[in-house]
């Protein structure tokens, strides 16, 4: 893990913070080529109510548009959470060379947790994977978000029960 990886993960974390401000799951992604930012994005699934508006997919779409090509050879994608199967597929199909992620995703991660699609030799393209960059920071942002969400849901349930019992 290089200082550049630390720096660019910081930029992905900034994107995740933008998601957090919109009450989205705080996941951010940036795509870098030749040490220059090509694209950045954050999760918008709740805002758009669209299952495919993950940070990685939005960043890939922007980078392809910026480059005028579906091929992102030479690109590194930095993302705060390990890519899911859908995002891993898009990463492979867009020919991203390298993926650097922060927190592991034991429920949906496909860059080492559940499986490793990105380095699977059966595919015609593989990515170098670097895991755990600023892992604690990325993981805490997600954990804190879900703790808050659970508290809010619990408070709403309690309020509904109280209103029901008083006949309001």
Plain-language structure description:
The protein is of the alpha/beta class and 168 residues long. It has a single domain (3-166), classed as 3-Layer(aba) Sandwich (Cytidine Deaminase, domain 2). The chain has helices spanning 3-21, 45-48, 55-67, 85-93, 135-166, and strands at 28-33, 36-42, 75-81, 98-103, 128-130. It has a 5-stranded mixed sheet. A hairpin with a 2-residue loop joins strand 1 and strand 2 (36-42). Helix 1 packs parallel to helix 5 (135-166). It starts with a helix and ends with a helix. The mean pLDDT is 94.
CATH superfamily: Cytidine Deaminase, domain 2
Output mean pLDDT. 94
Range of strand content: 15-25%
Uncertain spans: none
Query: What does the largest sheet look like?
Result: 5 strands, mixed
Spatial shape: elongated
Total count of helical runs of at least 4 residues: 5
How many structural domains can be distinguished in the coordinates?
1
Rg to the nearest angstrom? 18 Å
Which structural class do the helices and strands define?
A: alpha/beta
What is the count of β-strands? Answer: 5
End-to-end separation: 57 Å
What is the fold named in CATH at topology level?
Cytidine Deaminase, domain 2
The percent of residues in helical segments reads 40-55%
* Overall CATH architecture: 3-Layer(aba) Sandwich
Any idea of the CATH class? Answer: Alpha Beta
GO molecular function: tRNA-specific adenosine-34 deaminase activity; zinc ion binding
Organism: Jeotgalibacillus proteolyticus
Pfam families: dCMP_cyt_deam_1
Domain CMP/dCMP-type deaminase: 3-149
């Amino acid at each position: 893990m290089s200082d550049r990886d630390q720096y660019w993960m910081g930029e992905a974390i900034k994107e995740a913070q933008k998601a957090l401000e919109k009450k989205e799951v705080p996941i951010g992604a940036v795509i870098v080529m030749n040490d220059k930012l090509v694209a950045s994005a954050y999760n918008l699934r709740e805002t758009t109510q669209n299952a495919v508006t993950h940070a990685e997919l939005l960043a890939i779409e922007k980078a392809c548009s910026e480059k005028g090509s579906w091929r992102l050879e030479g690109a590194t994608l930095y993302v705060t959470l390990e890519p899911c199967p859908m995002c891993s597929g898009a990463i492979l199909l867009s020919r991203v060379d390298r993926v650097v992620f922060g927190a592991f995703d034991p429920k949906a991660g496909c860059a080492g947790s559940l499986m490793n699609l990105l380095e699977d030799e059966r595919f015609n393209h593989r990515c170098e994977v670097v895991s755990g960059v600023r892992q604690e920071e990325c993981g805490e942002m997600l954990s804190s978000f879900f703790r808050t969400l659970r508290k809010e849901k619990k408070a709403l349930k309690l309020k509904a029960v109280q209103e029901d019992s008083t006949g309001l």
